[in-house]
Amino acid sequence: MKKKHMRSAAIAAIGVVASLVLAGCSVPQQGGGGKAGGDTSADAKMPSQVTMVVPFAAGGGTDTWARFIAPYLQQTVEGSPKIVVENVEGGESITGANQFVTSGGTDGKQLLVTSGSTYLPALLNRKEVKYDFTKLIPLMVNGTGGAVYVSPKTGIKKASDLAGYDKTLVYGGISATGNDLVTLLAMDVLGIPIKATFGFEGRGPARLALERGEINLDYQTTSAYISQVEPMVEEGKATPLFSFGVPENGKIVRDPALPDLPTLEEVYQNINGSEPSGTAYDAYRAFLTAGYFYQKGLWANEGTPDSIVNAWRDAATTLSKDATFNEKAKDALGGYPLISGAEAKDDLKQAFSIKDEVRQYTLDLLKDKYDVTLETK
Amino acid sequence: MDAALSALGSFLDPTMFIYLGIGVIAGLIVGVIPGLGGTAAVAILLPFIFVLDPHPAMALIIGAVAVVHHSDAIASILMGIPGSSSAAVLLLDGHEMAKQGKGAKALSLAFMSSMAGGLIGAIGLTVSIPLARPLVLLFGSPEIFMLTVLGISLTALLSKGNLLKGLIAGAFGVLLGQVGAAPASPDYRFNFGQLWLSNGIDLVAVALAIFGLAEVIHLVAAKTAVANVTTLGTGWLDGVKEFFPNFIHVLRGALIGMWAGVLPGVGATAGTWMAYGQAQATAKGESKKKFGKGDPRGVIAPESAANSVEAGDLIPTLLFGIPGGAPSALLLGALLIFGIEPGPRIITDHLDTIYVIIWSFAIASIVGSLLCFVIAKPLSKLSFVRFPLLAAGLIPILFMAGFQGSLQLQILPLMLVIGVVGWLMKVFDFPRAPFLIGFVLSIPLERYYYLTDNLYSFSEWALRPGVLIMAAILVLPLVLAGIRMIRARRRPQPVVDEIPEDDDEATSELGPRKWSIFVSGGFFVIFVFAFILAQQFALAARLLPNVITIIGALLSLASFIIEWRKFRKEGPASEESTHKWRHLLRITGMSTLWLLTFVVLTFVFGLIIATAIYIPLFLWIVAKPKRWWTLMTYPLVIIAALLLAQQFAGLTMPVGYINFGI
């Protein structure tokens, strides 16, 4: 009797293990109710429920952005679908974005929310990335800005002191392949040597490290700059260098949110007497455009019907002209306008069609100066 | 002062109080469910935040955040299943008290401490907001690095009697914490090409598996109830009475928790264990030995810490805009939406909001504790139910909760493996506390080591006063132990037997020596294998894995040799004990198979359908309930709860190959 028991248990065990091995080979895809399929004809109707896939954790910056904007879109977009926000976090947002392109479908039931850390791995051509922003369809984008500053202990009291500055600045970053890269490329354009230490948990802890004197070069995005760094500047504990600016007709002009700060281009002109150009500057501009000017975005998969794409783009245009929305959005979106994908698509396409030599320049810079080697496709 | 009073006045407005109450109830419910904590509470409340005015929204969030750690004590104490990763510490003494029939006393102690911790936290918040900025700035990378070292070593050192096994468990925890993205270089470590592992293994899944699933495996096999007595024993009032003489432990626990909340990268789980560690380390003489055997101080210190952590966490959130966890990140997001920018100016510009937050915290702590007393009474009967009956519902809930962090189905088989490891550790007397602390502090340890090493020279950081103080705390017990040993040698005494005391986790049956050798050997193999894998990482990603695998390999080799020698000395085990062990292995094997069955069912049908099939099957074959209709009602209740959670609490249920759309 006992032996029989043992045998049946053993058989059960083998069966179960075998099925688990099978399961290990391909795992059922999680998240999102809508699988591929549905109505994809050119004049398809808006689905009754739309899931905004946020590849970041709940409560973070991108999640807050999506949840803020969702109710306004629900009211504005044609067909008034119920909008649900779903977080698929992990892998510096690569996991969620990969999942979106492989199983998000083209019927508009799922849309992808992106941020700088979704874009940069694609620009760097990282091995893990399965998505391609030259193929995905932008519905709407929303930029941000930022500013670079130093500790006055460096001896730099104003931006023009950078001319002929020959000491090494100490920079604190999160990861060389995230938004820190834009600042690294900016300092590379200016030709200022920096020693960078990565591993900070976020921009906040890095700013504290500057206040403690552990580092002396830092950047913050606009809202954090205004609330956290400006009081430091008033107390003489920080020296602003430049802002990243905003794009206007292909040129970069001063950021209206930080009107007193010169742009990097102004600082360069001031020091070198000419406008910045060359591969280093091209690399800076490519990563700046993706990482800042169009940082937050809402995207649909390639092949989504035009009727649905246009409905979202029109909603963005309507919202960007809506006074009550803009009033509320001043704090949540940092004062940067919501731009329809129709308007931004050419710029975005250009930014993501990065030239091989520019990409290689960036990869080489990471490798040679910061000892960071990336696995690329 | 005016601002404080006017903020208090705003609670006279019933709508404010209602929102606070809703938050408290959401927090309590989420806290009761094993594995769900602040993050899940946040998910429930998120949709409401953006449509409310600032002050009610603050009351709602704070109401939930302040009480999550009140009710998560219930599952830990009564069932031995961690209510959250930070409440796992209550398994040591709180659960032990429940086993002795003092469940009611343990719970009332926990609730009283929670309330006190919350109130002390609120007071601390009020006092420290003007002072916190320079204090936080004083604490640089070297100090945080030393604190993480101290945290890991303290818990390992406190596993008296089996220091070696404690250290091995700690090293194993650190190693498991290394899975995923490296903090200082863009490398993915030990992820075996799986992108879903690149964020690391979720803490909740690990804590639930190593303690919770291990307990399920153990108790289903034993087929008994959790408590081995049949009355609630000493009553609720006893706990309240016992609470006041121990107020010094409440205060110390709360202060430690608060500081753990203030510092980046430390957090609630490490905070509660550190509070427990200090209570044990500072206990005098004989009373020290009571820890782990149902000492009330082992409940009081961590519970008051758990609640003040959340208050401490608000300081960097409000003053620097740096949230310590998901709840405070949500608070930060909500503040930004309302145009309230955290930062140095918040004290002058938005003092009223700060006081609303502080008062919400204090009021929620009191209301939450009172409600806990109400709900705990019916729930406490659970510890008298035969465990297999509980397990039928617990198994789906544990896997569901572990799934929420990563939302990847592969986490389920991984949890099962960690659960089996947890059972082995339990049976072979490897303390799991250092394991969990090592896991939690692994990345902070590495991160702050890198920052320290890169930003300071050795002589610069090693001589900072804070670093020296913590080094002294670390070395002092060793020196004292050394002196004691030398003294003992001078005055020859009868040799103390070296058999490890059964301290941290009371185990009824120890495995045989032969298996003990296998387990130590198994750890050795894991460390060596990990060392080999680590050699392909970039330099900056390799250092800590190298250090920890070498230490771990040496320690487990030593343990292997010691066990081997003991085996040689003892000779082969007796016929009877071998037979007993075989029997134990067979029945735990069966309970593991049952867990595996659930995982497979979930892979095929998704969690909801799997639950519908599994619970009746498990009840019918294993639990054998007295009344037949339990087979029907039990699964219906659990599935209804899961569906409600999916619909209204924003929880995601795993989907299988065959998708039924639920």
Break the fold down into its secondary structure elements and pairings.
The complex is a heterodimer of chains A (377) and B (662).
Chain A: H1 2-25, E1 49-54, H2 61-76, E2 82-87, H3 94-103, E3 110-114, H4 116-123, E4 137-142, E5 146-150, E6 169-173, H5 180-190, E7 194-198, H6 203-212, E8 217-221, H7 222-234, E9 239-243, E10 246-248, E11 251-253, H8 264-272, H9 279-293, E12 296-300, H10 306-320, H11 323-332, E13 338-340, H12 341-352, H13 356-370
Parallel strand pairs in A: 1-2, 1-3, 6-7
Antiparallel strand pairs in A: 3-12, 4-12, 4-13, 5-8, 5-9, 10-11
Helix pairs in contact in A: 4-9, 5-9, 9-13
Chain B: H1 2-9, H2 14-32, H3 38-49, H4 54-79, H5 90-99, H6 103-128, H7 132-138, H8 141-158, H9 163-177, E1 180-181, E2 188-189, H10 203-222, H11 236-243, H12 247-262, H13 267-282, H14 297-320, H15 326-337, H16 346-349, H17 351-380, H18 387-406, H19 411-427, H20 433-455, H21 458-462, H22 465-490, H23 513-534, H24 539-570, H25 575-605, H26 607-623, H27 630-648
Antiparallel strand pairs in B: 1-2
Helix pairs in contact in B: 1-17, 2-3, 2-4, 2-17, 3-4, 3-15, 4-5, 4-6, 4-14, 4-15, 4-17, 5-6, 5-14, 6-11, 6-12, 6-14, 6-17, 8-9, 8-13, 8-20, 8-22, 9-20, 9-24, 10-18, 10-19, 10-25, 12-13, 12-14, 13-14, 14-15, 18-26, 19-25, 23-24, 25-26, 26-27
Domain DUF1468 (chain B): 520-644
Keywords (chain B): Membrane, Transmembrane, Transmembrane helix
Transmembrane segments (chain B): 16-37, 44-67, 73-94, 106-129, 135-159, 166-184, 196-214, 318-341, 353-376, 383-401, 407-425, 432-450, 462-483, 515-537, 543-562, 593-622
